Amino acid sequence: MFKNTQRIALTALLVTASLLAACTQEQQNKISRDIQNWTGTNGVLEVYAGDKLVRRFLKVDKISTALGTDDKAPRAYRYGYGVLDENLNMVADPDEKKVYFEVSDYSNTVFFENPR
């Protein structure tokens, strides 16, 4: 009925599903984040001043928490790379470049997956 390679693939799938089911929600979330870090996310980071959108970064793979060099303690800002959407049109135009950015923990920001 099944070929040997199909049995191996089915067994591997069942083992993986069983292991994931045995993980806590936190462990499943970490696995999901690790997969996203490897595959990337087409994220959008928006920065607001009050209720006004002032900056938008497109094609953001991930936002990382800064850690201290010596103490490895988390710092009060996040950083990443993304295309600065200068005209705020939700399109990475040819003249818009990928840049490094930092945002404070106290900034009003929204990070989401680009729906386009």
Briefly, what is this?
By secondary structure, the chain is an alpha+beta fold. It contains two helices and six strands, in the order ααββββββ.
Strand proportion: 35-45%
Catalogue the unreliable spans: none
Total strands: 6
Shape summary: extended
Order of helices and strands: HHEEEEEE
Calculate the terminal CA-CA distance, rounded to whole Å: 43 Å
Structural class: alpha+beta
Helical residues, percent: 25-40%
Query: How many H/I helical runs?
Result: 2
pLDDT averaged residue by residue? 84
Outline the biggest β-sheet: 6 strands, antiparallel
**What is the radius of gyration computed over CA atoms, rounded to a whole number of angstroms?**
20 Å
Structure write-up:
The protein contains two helices and six strands, in the order ααββββββ. It has helices spanning 4-22, 25-39, and strands at 43-49, 52-60, 63-67, 74-84, 98-104, 108-113. Strand 1 and strand 2 (52-60) form a beta hairpin. The chain is of the alpha+beta class. Strands 1, 2, 3, 4, 5 and 6 form a six-stranded antiparallel β-sheet that branches. The mean pLDDT is 84. It is extended and about 55 Å long.
